[in-house]
Amino acid sequence: MVYKSIQRRRPFRLDTVAAIGGLLLALTLFPLRFFASQIYLNTVPILLGTACALYLIALYQENARGLPTLPAAVSMTLPSLVLSGLAGLVMLTVLQGTRTPLFFGVASLLGTLLLGQILFTNDQTFKPGLVLLQVVLFAFVFRFTALYVTPGYIGIDIWTHVELTTAILEEGSLGAISHDKHFASPLYHLLVASSALLYGVPIRTALYLSVGLVMPLSILLVYAGTNLLVAQRWATLAATCYALASHVAMWGMHLIPTSLGLVFFLAVLYALLRVMRIEYTFRDFSLLLLLSVAVILTHQVSTFIMLVLLLAAFIAQIVFVVGPLGLDRLDTSVFRAKKPVNLVGLVAFNFGLTIFVWSLTPYREDSFLATVLSFFTQTLEESAGFLNIASDSAADSTETSTETTQTLLEQIVPYVDALGFLFLLGATFVGCLYVVHRRRAEQSVFTLLLAAAFMLVFVLGLPMFGIRNFIPTRWFAFLYAPMAILGAIGLRTLYGKLSPALVVSVLLIFVLVFPGAMIFAAESNADNPVFADQHERLAYSDAELTAAASIGELTGSPSGSDIRPDQRLHTDHPYQTLISRTGVYPSTTAATVPDDGVANHDYVVYRTTQSTEATFFRDADGNGRIEQITRDRICRPDQAIVYTNGEVSMCTPSPASM
Prior knowledge:
Radius of gyration: 26 Å
Low-confidence stretches: 1-11, 326-336, 390-404
Distance between the termini: 85 Å
Mean pLDDT: 88
Number of strands: 11
Largest sheet: 5 strands, mixed
Strand content: 5-15%
Helix content: 55-70%
Shape: globular
């Protein structure tokens, strides 16, 4: 390690100022933990300060010695170990009948071996093609083992989309869903329906052979986009980090329009980087336009996220045309100097088409655009406010308890779920500092920086003010794409600048912790949660599926308008979504179970999962919470059991009590 001379230190460069500003911002945000209890308020300031400190250390060091690498024999053995481990995962799943904590532990180890091949092998033994093959196979095995052992489907919204696709198949027309908001964004349903007709298979198989197959392959788009900016080793790192990401894995198992929208979004991101990095042709720009239209016709939330990306690219264009960052001083050894791409027409077209389509989309007795604007206005008027932190259903259960009444596990689990994201966010901060250097800044990397920043506002910023109208949990998988690319750039920066001892420590922690943190996060194991006491299982057994169908036969599956308020069916969440969304009994909702009390409903459904795993009920104040209840707290002794199969029971008013 050789320290730079005083004369060569330039403390007032933009990246230096940004790093110092990041440190000051971290110090400013740190006291917020004393005003509100929220995981990101507790961790992001520390993470930001650490990333800025590491960058400043790297800024004034030069690594004069090579970093230690694995012996060639070990490096050449790792691919065989990974492939053997993947075969072991398949055998383990078949033998155990589900993905158990042992499965996730082995998968975490394989993820570590994948990252180790990228970061700790020399140039002679590093084979990017072979590593990419392992990454794609890992993604296939990790997702399809869950799909294989799960009866029915994984997730909540999927049941609605299967019903919509079935309606299209039965009527042979898109008019079958003309009442639904997906009527104006039907690509997902048409793809699955056409696959079912083409292959001559049920909808479930058609879904897996279409959207299910595309999801793991879309990882290659992240690699291709990153490779336009950096060398293959770091492009492979970005693709691997993206493949391991928890929310990305979730949309590879919970296959809904968000999944297909994510695929098209990644294609848009690649096409956008491509036109910014090469001397593009009309064909390249036409492809970008076509892909953006595909997103609009697939999913509304994906469309909004894509518009944020395009807006970031447009602002990056303005910065380099009229702003202080010119291309005359660009370091061509880092990025090739290229005139900014004019995106005015593309942005205007997509915003205009989106507004037009949303204006024609039916949603809750009005257009989708009018309804969404109405919801947003209502939120601003009624519940928005600084540190008025809103949370999703998974976190609501912890919000209702004070810290003193929480067990150690309840306090740790949220940090386990967020740890992988936080590790990648720290690498992203370093990557952002690297690309704001005036000699490295250009439109493509600034687009990634601005897109990540804007998306973080929607994911982390607006919820701090009680605004969750934009469904921030849907954004993570999209956000992981620019984060993975910038994170790879950030780790490359530390790799080449920090002293060997420090860089090995940083990379080793990342390699050992990141895969396991992502794989043990709730989104990666929704089919069989590792922390079953803290996270609901979004998959059902054969008995639970059979019970739902039998309840429909028993009741005649009445329409919602035929059910009186006192005839509403009550059970836990998420089981109530299965019963209502499949049309078995449309008027089904979560049961109210007071603390240490019993449910006071006439028609209820009990399943043994309610006593053994995490399920949601409402308390007397109407707040959702996780609770494990005994059978007699929901199916009272004075009720009659009209259906049971050992795992699921339906209870109604007893004739003797009427």
